[in-house]
Design brief:
Layout (H helix, E strand, L loop, with lengths): L4 E13 H4 L17 E13 L2 E5 L14 H6 L1 E3 L4 H7 L9 E3 L20 E5 H12 L9 H4 L4 E5 L3 E5 L2 E5 L8 E7 L3 E7 L5 H5 L12 H18 L2 E4 L3 H8 L2
Parallel strand pairs: 3-5, 5-6, 6-7, 11-12
Antiparallel strand pairs: 1-2, 1-4, 2-3, 8-9, 9-10, 10-11
Amino acid sequence: MVDATVTPIDRGTITTDVNNILEGFVQGTADDPNPDLVMGDGPVYNLVIDHPEATILWDTGSHPEADAGHWPADLYSAFEHTDLRPLEDDLADAGYAVDDVDAVLQTHLHLDHAGGLYAFAGTDTPIYVHERELKYAYYSAKTDAGSTAYVAADFDLDLEWRIVHGDREYLYEDLELLHLPGHTPGLLGVRLDLEDAGTVVLAGDLAYSRANYDEEHPMGGGLLWSKRHWYESLRQVKDLERRTDALVTCGHDAGDFERLEAL
């Protein structure tokens, strides 16, 4: 167990059709062939992990100009992100500067997670990302195939990439990276064994909300690269939770943001 702290940083709110979050949430019937869609809100957040060996930034959030053309208009319409702010400002509000960050851990490179990487362009700050994620992000952003959720301008920068190749890798003492494909090919989770709080698993977008994790309700097809891989990753984290009595947190769940604030 390591004496480390976790500081959540609020990066705004995403609003989207709940069918994106929960597969088949709204369905038509013969009695109600045209049901009203339901929109749902979720937080975007980053974390600062103050570890004895390094100050680590977990994800970098959305680009502050996501609503001003940095995101394609159709994507912003589908995933409206309000309360956008520069990463530097939100770090400062939490008591940190960009220069305080010794390493960045990118869970994946979707546009609402990698948009603050600009702050580290041209620096020697290591940016950790899984090999499969980096390849898929470039494949998606530079061709007509793959996923539309990647914006090349977020990550096609002068960055000090550090590539994670395996399924499990210790980055620092009691901080382990977990390869959890499903949402994307290279999603990284984090296992932290903390002195005060016990084991914490930052599952990120393995589960957008608690219903994805607790009820094993898949995200909508647009948010899953592979449902089969997603179920396998879910089983892996649930097994870890059973064995360690871990606190597992989801990527855009307001209640989990509050749980992290209470650590």
